[in-house]
Amino acid sequence: MDFVVKNFIEILFSIGLMIIGLLFNKIKKYYINVESSVIGVKYLLKTKIIEEYDRIKEKGYITLYQKENIISLYNEYKKFGEDNFIKEIMNEIENIKVESCR
Fold first, then answer.
1. What residues form DSSP beta bridges with 98?
2. pTM for this model (two decimals)
3. How confident is the model at residue 11 (pLDDT cuts 50, 70, 90)?
4. φ, ψ of residue 24 in degrees (nearest 5)
5. What's the structural domain count of the chain?
6. Helix and strand element counts for the chain (H, E)
7. What local confidence, expressed as pLDDT, does residue 37 receive?
8. Distance set, CA 44 to CA 24, 40, 41, 54, 58 (Å)
9. Could you report the per-residue pLDDT of 45-71, keeping only the tens digit for each?
10. What are the φ/ψ torsions at residue 62 (nearest 5 degrees)?
11. Is 100 contained in some domain?
């Protein structure tokens, strides 16, 4: 009992450090999971934009609905950071003629 009383502050400090270490590890794992999810969403958006672009190029025209949809996808994609490839695709899409549904 004498040992506990004499070393009370050191024991509390050690317990506090242990709790901080556990919390840090939990936060670190959470951050890694969030970062992985963000990267996954970015690449899903990129893939969808490219798929839509390929479909539009094949047809030779774009419907208003498709254009609005791809612009929405691009706006979300830009939040994760842009790249020149997708920017070029969007510039091409802007120049594709808009037609009503066939």
1. 62
2. 0.73
3. confident
4. -60, -45
5. 1
6. 4, 0
7. 93
8. 30, 6, 5, 15, 21
9. 999 999 999 999 999 999 999 999 999
10. -135, 140
11. no
Q: Is there a domain that residue 38 lies in?
A: yes
For 29-44, the DSSP string reads HHHHHHHHHHHHHHHH
In a domain, 71, yes or no: yes
Angle between helices 8-59 and 64-78 (to 10 degrees): 150
Q: Which domain holds residue 47?
A: 2-95
Q: pLDDT per residue over 71-96, tens digit each? A: 999 999 999 887 899 999 999 999 99
Measured in degrees and rounded to the nearest 5, phi and psi for residue 79 equal -65, -25
DSSP letter (8 states) at residue 60: T
Of 100, 99, 82, which is closest to residue 91 (Cα–Cα)? 82
